[in-house]
Each structure stands twice: as structure tokens, then as C-alpha cells.
Amino acid sequence: MFESVGSLAAGPWIYAVVAVSVLLDVFLPVLPSGVLVITAGTAAAAGSGAAGQVPHEVPDILALILSATTASVLGDLVAYRLAWRGGERLDRAIARSRRLTTAQERLGDALSRGGGALVVLARFAPAGRSVVSFCAGAAHRRVRDFLPWSALAGLSWAAYSVALGYYGAQWLGATWLATGVSVAALFGAGAAAAFLMRRRPVS
């Protein structure tokens, strides 16, 4: 079974696939970028010898984390800049959505206080990254206030996702069961992040 997983993530092209998927999911949150990163992390477990060797090249953990983090930050910045230039049309779209209006206000308050934990938390919540990036740009928040938190959010999410796949394979064996459990853990973190964002302000 591991050979099947390994073959899906074999070769250097996996880094480009991960990067493109993560970059685009700020615009298309339905893209399974987290599942892809976890699957690549599962395949990377082969390189440790803990899950057994397979006749495929396996991804490097640090390279996976770097590619996913870089793509996450770049995607955030593209969304941020597009929203910055969105003008009145985007402002009206946000004004019509209570959720987006509330998110914009809370994000502005958090960034103005120097506490961007909301950006990090939103990275794990479903569509949270998209909401935060677009709202930060639409509100014309300074890039120096937004970028460091975007980088921390991207790194946290990428490291967590890769670790889920990697250690899941070590503990449960490099099988589809391990991948499924790891994906469930990622969705669980997303549900918890969404709950916390609804329940109370994040400083």
C-alpha cells in the first residue's frame, strides 16, 4: 500500500504541485492542498526508514515545508494586493456580508494592537485564510503589519500538515489509514480554529 502512496508523491515535481495548490487555494478554498501536503508528508516517512523503504524517490520534509510556506505567503500577498486595489466594488461586496465585515473589523483591531494571532488561527479555519487576506487588503492595512503574521501562519500550517503525514505514517504505518487519520486531524484543527474565532476575539 505504501508504494501506492509513495508513487503519488515521488519525484521533484511534487514540490511544484504542492506550491501551486497551496498558492491557489486562497482563491479556491475547495482545493485539497492540505490533503496533498499530508500525502507528501506520508511518502516522506519512507526516507526515515521507519516506514520501510520503497523503490521511489521520496520528498524531503524541509523542502515540503518550505515550498508550502512560501506558496502560502505568496498567495496571501496576491489576495491582499488584489483586495487593496479592489476599490468601491469590493468595499460594497464586503459591506453586504456580515461575516466579512466582522472579520475585517476584528482583523483591523488585532493588527493595530500588534497582535496578529487571528491571522495564524484563520490559516487553519476553512476559508479563513481567504477572508483574512482579502479583508486586510480591502482595509488597506499596512503590509508590514500583515506580512510577518502571514509568514508565521503559513509556516505553522505547513509544518503541522507535513508533521501529520510524516508521524502518522511512522505510528500507523505508511498506509491510506494513516493518511485518513492525518487528514481528519487537520480538519479537526480547522474546526477548532473556526470555533475559537467565533467564540471570542483573538489578540
SSE layout and pairings?
Blueprint: H1 2-8, H2 13-24, H3 33-44, H4 61-84, H5 87-96, H6 98-112, H7 117-124, H8 128-138, H9 143-172, H10 176-199
Helix pairs in contact: 1-3, 2-3, 2-4, 3-9, 3-10, 4-8, 4-9, 6-8, 7-8, 7-9, 7-10, 9-10
Features:
single chain, 203 residues, mainly alpha, 0% strand, elongated, disordered N terminus
Radius of gyration: 18 Å
Class derived from helix and strand content: mainly alpha
Low-confidence parts:
1-5, 50-55
Characterize the overall form.
elongated
Mean pLDDT: 78
* Helicity range: over 70%
Which series of helices and strands comes N to C?
HHHHHHHHHH
Transmembrane segments: 12-28, 61-83, 146-168, 174-197
Pfam families: VTT_dom
Main location: membrane
Organism: Streptomyces corchorusii (Streptomyces chibaensis)
Structure description:
- The protein has 203 residues and is mostly helical.
- It has one domain.
- 75% of the residues lie in helices and 0% in strands.
- It contains ten helices and no strands.
- Helix 3 (33-44) packs across helix 10 (176-199), helix 6 crosses helix 8 and helix 7 crosses helix 9 (143-172).
- The longest helix is centred in the last third of the chain and has 30 residues, at 143-172.
- It is elongated.
- Residues 1-5 and 50-55 have low confidence and may be disordered.
Précis, in short:
The protein has 203 residues and is mostly helical. Helix content is 75%, strand content 0%.
